[in-house]
């Protein structure tokens, strides 16, 4: 009996001491805590928070015993990153850990990423709801931290840390504040963007050498990916310079590589420094998910050629070329060989201009990889130049401004033997065709830009050859020329009528310009057009005798009318987009990822003010009530990628789908499913059917 | 031409460095033949992978002192998987690649004793003190699991489940990849997740 009660007493004493111990542990501010192989600290820069405090940083620090280590967010071959669980006053939340640069920790044939001696984990605490005001005079923070600590053998450790801060009057702990500020600075890595390519069992990271220049001479580079399993962490990473790029070769890990790669680049130069890397996969048309993408080069060349032929019928090219063709019917009665020469020099003019334009693009892309076809239209200066050109062509067709290369119908001798004229017409056709190329040629040009220079050039030349082809055929085959209508007075009327599509193109070009620059500068271009007309009128009224006087007056007046062009910037960065009825957010890769993360359905449309097809689609399909209400009903989020001005992020987006131009319409049904590419010409029904399809 | 030559030279150099340094870390791939090996089991008998042609084989890298292995043995998670699938004709091999003197190295008699004490239900516990088998498969952690199909091809490699921790409570919340893969294979279905990143302690290879 006595025995029993004694034991009872003993047990209850034990229980009581346990309760006491627990109470003690909960109420005391257990901080720091010593574990078997580390000491854990929770450090605040504030002893007391002000009532207006919206956020502040905390530091969870591990002082690690010698020879032991803890891990980075990606632990490498083995190990585990620390896990933090917070208990905060209501209305506050903790952000993710902001990490310091890790070290490579070799273990036999394996390599881990982590820290020795000290591991610092910065976490931002943030107020979420303004409504719930902290009524208490204190601010209590509890942290349950779990971490794996290893020498060679591993031990999981944990600590319950708490901090009781004051609340009401802000009071800084200068020492802790200084330490945290320093750590924030050292964890604030400069961000650079890069790209990468997948190879058989490695990946190569393409870095802009400019970004590394300030760290030279570079002894070694090492890339730490944030995600585990993507690379073989123990394999050496080798690098070399290629042109203005530094290429780092890394052995692939066991997991397949995703489309984007983030991580930390360690540069061993005179000092050790780090850059934060965001790399996107370089697109390969072969892996493109665009199902209409032809894969063989011959198919692409054929497509480019057919596209070139179609270009002949575009509103911007047709008037000029039809006149050129009609002039053949007159030449038909002349020497056959001369006609062939004309046809050939015209073809040469086109091919040479395409070679120059394409070559320029291929060269520019070496420096600015985000350039794509249609890049010319992103330059207000080029658009202004086109406005002048189209205006002159229009006037010319109406009968003003007889330019020497124009197939002057009234004056036989002027046009007949002028081979240079044919050549210039060819170049002219190329230049005025450029605004019309994008919608037809997006696929082929996308391929052209992603291939090596030789293949790219072949594609550009096939396109040019297609453009030249109809005229060339007429020039080469006299029997075909017989079907051309007989020349006569009707040709003049026809010529004048053709000026109106040209003027319509002019209106559109001006509208594009207004999207790119402000109204005063675009008005200046109109002023320039009037100046040209005035100059031409003045010139005809002056009736100058000597050719020197005529030439100098023409030059002066001509230059004067070009002055408004000088107000246009060669490149434009200010975002301005065509108005449309669809409520949307601006596209960014991050935004898209966020929405998909939230399990939203997303429709992305890439457009540009200068893209006529895009505008038509937006008018007849995207902007209609039917589509709008459908999108709302289905709760599909709309992202608009406006490519009116150069934007590398959008260029990358286009390249993902093997495109080099707009429009592009992509529907993401969910994160798991593949995105769906819609046709380039849309109607409300077509659009809705595509979005509905399961 | 000069540039082409330079590139070629670079590639060869890089390749040379890679193959030299990774000579030991041959990679196995899903869908490719799993390399054969021979090792001594807890009874001192020689066992080869090729003995089990025509059967599903699970390779489980282990080290009974590692906290991640403890998570799955203390909870009986690993033993019940071993029991469940060996009952269905699957061959289960628990492999120990720790070098002599390191954590997780057991001599044959010790291994036999530990196997029964831990309740390990594997067909064989195998000794790999040189780390040869582990390096052949690129085994990095304990646990690290591989599934080989009756044709001798690799069908799964990676972690045991989806939550990387040493906490027993996480087992119930996690997706067990090995169980999912074996269930699919035994039903003649396609394995959904074939490749994951294993988590755990490092395999204690010879330095």
Describe this structure in words.
The complex is a heterodimer of chains A (694) and B (207). Chain A has a seven-stranded mixed β-sheet with strand order 16-19-20-14-15-18-17. In chain A, strands 1-2-4-10-7 form a five-stranded antiparallel β-sheet, covered by helices on one side. The longest helix of chain A has 32 residues, at 336-367. Chain A has five domains: 27-186, Thiol:disulfide interchange protein DsbD, N-terminal domain (Immunoglobulin-like), CATH 2.60.40.1250; 190-282, Immunoglobulin-like (Sandwich); 297-517, no CATH class; 518-567; 585-692, Glutaredoxin. The termini of chain A are far apart. Chain A is elongated. In chain A, a hairpin with a 7-residue loop joins strand 24 and strand 25. Helix content of chain A is 44%, strand content 25%. Chain A has 694 residues and is of the alpha+beta class. Chain B is α+β, with helices and mostly antiparallel strands and 207 residues long. Chain B has one domain (26-202): Glutaredoxin. In chain B, 33% of the residues lie in helices and 17% in strands. Chain B contains seven helices and nine strands. Chain B has helices at 2-21, 67-74, 77-86, 108-118, 132-137, 170-173, 177-186, and strands spanning 38-41, 46-48, 57-61, 91-96, 124-127, 141-142, 144-148, 154-158, 201-202. In chain B, the strands form two sheets. In chain B, strands 2-1-5-4-3-7-8 form a seven-stranded mixed β-sheet, covered by helices on one side. Chain B has a two-stranded antiparallel sheet with strand order 6-9. Chain B is globular, with a radius of gyration of 18 Å. The N and C termini of chain B lie far apart (44 Å).
